[in-house]
Amino acid sequence: MTENNTATPETPETPENQATPENPENPENPENTESRRAAVVINPMKSPGESFRASFFRLCETQGWAEPLWLETTKEDTGIGQAREALEAGVDVVIAAGGDGTVRCVAEVLAGTGTPMGLVPLGTGNLLARNLGVDITDPVAASYDVLSGTDVKVDVVKARLDHAEEEHIFLVMAGLGYDAAIMANTVDELKDRVGWLAYVEAGIRHLPGKPIRAKISIDGQHPVRRRIRSVMVGNCGKIMGGVEIFPDAKVDDGILDVVILAPVGRLGWLGVLAGVFGRNNPKNTSVEYFAGKSAEIELAHEQEFQLDGDPLGSAKHLGVTVEQGALTVRMTAV
Question: What does pTM read for this prediction?
Answer without folding.
Answer: 0.83
